[in-house]
Amino acid sequence: MSTEPVSIDPMGTSALGSTEDPAWIRMQMMLGYDGAAYSGWARQPNVIGVQQLVEEALEMLVRRRVRVVVAGRTDAGVHARRQVVHFDLTQAEYDGLPRKASLEPGPALVRRINGILGRQDGAVWVHEAQRAPEGFDARFSALARRYSYRIADGQHRWDPLTRHLTTWHREELDVEAMNREAQTVLGRHDFLTYCKPRPHATTIRTLQEFSFTRGEDGLILAHLKADAFCHNMVRALIGAAMMVGDGREQPGFLATRLEQMVRDSKTKLSHPRALVLEEVYYPEADELAARALQTRALRSEDEVEEPSTGG
Fold first, then answer.
1. E-strand stretches of 37-77
2. How many CB atoms within 10 Å of residue 216?
3. What is the dihedral of CA 133, 142, 209, 125, to 10 degrees?
4. With helix as H, strand as E and coil as C, how does 150-191 read?
5. Of 9, 34, 75, 153, which one is the catalytic site residue?
6. CA-CA distance, 196 to 102, in Å (whole number)?
């Protein structure tokens, strides 16, 4: 890959090029990946993240470094079905995507980048790419993210063929009890107990949906949706619910822990392999820029709701 120095263009994307040829064209791309093979989304030293693979593939196509901004970073082992990213191209790069093929630039990009990512044996795959609407930001324009989580409770439900997408739990879980717990933490709160705080970042989030259902296959499927999730939040919430579901903790545990606002030995994380980023939600095109500005605004602690203790 290129070792030339990096200059930053006004849109916030790393660009190797002169100021006479700025990268003004924002691209929106949707991709999925099997997180078992990688150390999370983000670039990290000495390990491979999905971001590195995508950026290196783009570099091969446009012959310069391109920084990709993601809707939601995923941890090591976590999967994504419909992850969203954006990056910026120059006019010449955009026009050159089809080369001599009779394709629009977006579909041409999908075909060419999947040709490179095919070396990952299907573990990373781009579904769609297009020129983004004005004001689009993959991270800050998002209204919400939705995750799923699969649990096989009881050894009779353990299937080696799906082990990389399912958590195995020895004890039977009480789905109704876990659903009652999940309802007590819905709304806007400071989720410090359930997050691994990052420097200068808030742990205030709005949890919009949280539920458990047992499918016809006997497995439990958890469903969570929030405006955003802080680091480890999904796995910590599911881990806490499972402790009530198998009787290790008493009803009311999730709300009590939320109110305590302390991350300690009682904060248990469920295994990452069963977690999937399913979807990212965005507003209508004419509301994208306003949403990005709103999201960037600092969340105020006085907006936090009191934890619900209802059943």
1. 69-70
2. 5
3. 80
4. EEEECHHHCCHHHHHHCEEECCCCCHHHHHHHHHCCCEEEEC
5. 75
6. 48
Decide if pLDDT at 305 tops 80.
no
- Distances in Å between the alpha carbon of 144 and those of 24, 89, 151, 215? 26, 26, 23, 25
- Give the torsion sign (CA, 133, 24, 119, 5): negative
The number of beta carbons lying within 10 Å of the beta carbon of residue 82 is 16
pLDDT, one tens digit per residue, over 173-216 is 999 999 999 999 999 999 999 998 888 788 999 999 999 999 99
Give the model confidence (pLDDT) of 1-52 as tens digits.
444 433 333 334 444 443 357 889 999 999 999 999 899 999 989 999 999 9
Amino acid, res. 7 = S
- On whether the CB atoms of residues 240 and 253 are closer than 8 A, the answer is yes
Single-letter amino acid, residue 64: R
pLDDT at 255 exceeding the cut of 70: yes
Residue for token pair 């990096």: 6
* Alpha-carbon dihedral 31, 165, 281, 208, rounded to 10 degrees: -170
Please provide the size of the chain in residues: 311
190 catalytic residue (yes or no): no
Query: Phi-psi category of 31—alpha, beta or left, where left has phi over 0 and alpha has psi -120 to 50?
Result: beta
H helix and E strand count, the chain: 7, 12
